[in-house]
Amino acid sequence: MTCEEIVFRKPDVNELFVAALRQLAFEEPASRFARMRKTVSKQCAKNPDTKPLLRSIESNYLSLAKTFGQIFGPQNVEEPSLSQILSLAIALDDLRVFSETALTIWSQQFQQNQPVNVGGQLSEKMSGLLALLGNNRSQSANAWLQACFFAAIDWRFSEWASLNQNEKKEDLERVLLVQEIFHELKADGLAAGHAALPLLCAEELADKVYECAKKLAGKLRPNLLLLVEGQTEAIVLPHFARLSGLSFNQLGVEVIASGGAKQVARRYLTIKDTVRLPIICVLDGDAEQSAELIEDSLRDCDKLVSLAVVELEDSYSYEQLLYLLDAHLARFGQTLVQCEFVLPETGRRKDALNKIYRDRGLGDFDKIGFAQEVVQSCKKTSDVPFEMAKVVDAVRATLSMGQCLDG
Q1: Predicted pLDDT at 383
Q2: Of the given ranges (241-245, 257-261, 264-268, 401-405), which has the lowest mean pLDDT?
Q3: DSSP class per residue in 47-76
Q4: What does the alpha-carbon distance between residue 392 and residue 396 come to, in Å, rounded to a whole number?
């Protein structure tokens, strides 16, 4: 029994939301399909008729994609559906972001004994559309386009608005962004005539897909990855960028707190071969060994920014730091002057800050709380420390250079 012959239970809004996140996640193709497989297996476990499918979805990307689409995709609609156009646009954005290496890893895992040519399973128009989108692309890229076409989510779903507002903000934003584009496509179709989309030729449909992919670029998937050591940089850098005239959110800059210098190096060495995006690594001044590892492996489009300081608080002048500390302590009903204190005018200040906070019964210096205070208190470009401005300048310069190329 094939997935087309099985009647699946209609998923509720929360199940559909989880499935949508599987499609929209910024994850390498192999990892994303592994999560999709878990989602499909969970649904199949509820239906005894689907047992024969469980084996085929383990290593057959088309079987997995079709079953996913059969469960979560649009049903009883004329091809191409708006949801399928959107799914192909998301696939094109994947091809912008992920390297041929990432696609090959995916296809080797999920394409065993599976012919790439699926023309016989599609209408002539749909085969033509996929051929146009896959023109001059690799076999793995064409397989990805096919898989995403079959694994379309039903973006018509009328209950998206009822999603629990406790869902992560960024998750809701991703899903609602795609549905907004869906409604734009639907409105365009209604303006041109109810059956406008099915009547379009393959070339016109391809133009629609590219148009949607352009709207998604930098919103679903980033345009640049900024690898930093800890949460403090992840908190303050987007704010410092805004003060300097850059919106990380609008420009598609994703800041990733890695958990230390060694983890920055490890993450960079892991992902540099699987993404086509430029990557900037930011290391503190005491991370010489990690800096050397990264420097030896940098692609032409990537940058390493080595700061002259070790901690955020070390990047401020003595006077600026006093002001920020007073503002932060005021949140606890404390002041600097209520107790004597010693604070180095330059250099490392960690031990001195720990003593200041302990003397006031506040435990060790709260780096995360201080970073949040910085965001609240810094209002103009001159409030951005020089070392942090170096990072923002590197982002600006890298974005102006454009995207990396494979190889």
Answers
A1: 92
A2: 401-405
A3: -GGGHHHHHHHHHBHHHHHHHHHHHHS--S
A4: 6
